[in-house]
Write a structure and sequence with these properties.
Blueprint (H helix, E strand, L loop, with lengths): L2 H23 L4 H18 L1 H14 L5 H20 L1 H6 L2 H7 E5 L3 H4 L4 E4 L6 H10 L5 E5 L5 H12 L4 E5 L4 H9 L3 E4 L10 E6 L2 E6 L1 H8 L3 E9 L6 E5 L12 H18 L24
Parallel strand pairs: 1-9, 2-5, 2-8, 3-4, 3-5
Antiparallel strand pairs: 6-7, 8-9
Length: 305
């Protein structure tokens, strides 16, 4: 057996063991599971050196008004939420619909999409409770859902994520490498688009748009799609309760004048500005460990050196 085959074998069995552990943990009361997740996050803060550096770099540049001790404290708190998000994923993947309905508090007009006769888009930024928003769109309203997801290199993890997101039968997921025609087919058939707009996927179909005053490679697709398909757009924010007793998903008022007459870059700047507001309100729960500024304008030094 080659070294590559051994690594694949270890990776597969290690991932399967992790799935068994997640399944067992999802049976615990959520406050206890949240406490375990916070402990895991504190451990990851010590051990995950590269991701800790990424998070601290992001916080230092995006929130320079904080003192250095405040920035470090925010990153520590962020890792506690990150640990929770990892362990509580099992609840979202395997808990009964009744249990999830008890754990998720929905605020705002969750039924707007199913009442709307137009093409529809939810805009959901990458907070650590992002998965909960996807669950809420399936359990609290009846319109079909279509979404992209980030395909995982580990086949066991990838299958777990995919199955977890489609298990209620109302959502179709596509990888970002799939043909966009599949998404358009879903939209033509009446599905609402769950759109996650704030990750760095390079400059393909993107532009440098300020995010906390820093040029960030940002997809223009949300603005382009909303304009070309005359979509109704509703922003959604998913949060963990700090006490570990559940989640809040806010279905906010629709953006009736977005993207409007603005060009795509200007409209995308408005989108980034809205995400900035949500981050300022809940700074520890944003996905700071993502390399949001990995892609740089020509001539600029790497952001994460």
């Amino acid at each position: 057996m080659s070294e590559r085959h051994i690594q694949t074998w270890i990776g597969r069995w290690g991932a399967q063991a992790a799935m068994v552990l997640l399944w067992a943990l999802h049976l615990l009361p959520l406050p206890l599971l949240a406490a375990l997740g916070r402990s895991l996050g504190r451990l990851l803060h010590v051990l995950a050196h590269s991701r800790r550096r990424v998070a601290l770099r992001n916080v230092q540049r995006c929130l320079p008004e904080l003192t250095a001790p405040q920035q470090q404290a925010l990153v520590r708190e962020h890792f506690e939420y990150l640990g929770r998000s990892l362990l509580e994923r099992g609840v979202l993947w395997w808990a009964s619909p009744d249990r999830l309905r008890r754990l998720i508090e929905v605020q705002g007009d969750v039924g707007l999409a199913e009442r709307s006769s137009t093409r529809f888009m939810w805009v959901v930024p990458h907070f650590l409770a992002l998965e909960v928003a996807g669950v809420a769109t399936q359990l609290f309203q009846d319109r079909a859902v279509t979404a992209f997801y980030q395909q995982q290199s580990n086949a066991v993890f990838d299958e777990a994520i995919r199955r977890g997101r489609i298990r209620f039968g109302k959502v179709t997921v596509h990888t970002r490498h799939d043909n966009a025609l599949k998404l358009m087919r879903d939209l033509r058939q009446g599905a609402a688009f769950l759109n996650l707009p704030d990750m760095d996927f390079g400059l393909k179909d993107a532009a440098f748009v300020p995010f906390f005053g820093i040029e960030a490679a940002t997809l223009l697709a949300p603005a382009r799609m909303a304009r070309s398909l005359d979509m109704m757009v509703q922003p959604v924010l998913a949060l963990m309760r700090p006490d570990g007793r559940g989640y809040i998903v806010k279905f906010l008022p629709p953006w009736t004048h977005w993207p409007g007459a603005e060009d795509d870059v200007s409209a995308t700047r408005q989108l980034n500005a809205w995400i900035e507001e949500q981050v300022m309100a809940h700074p520890a729960q944003y996905l700071w460990v993502h390399k949001r500024f990995k892609t740089r304008p020509e001539g600029q030094a790497p952001f994460y050196d």
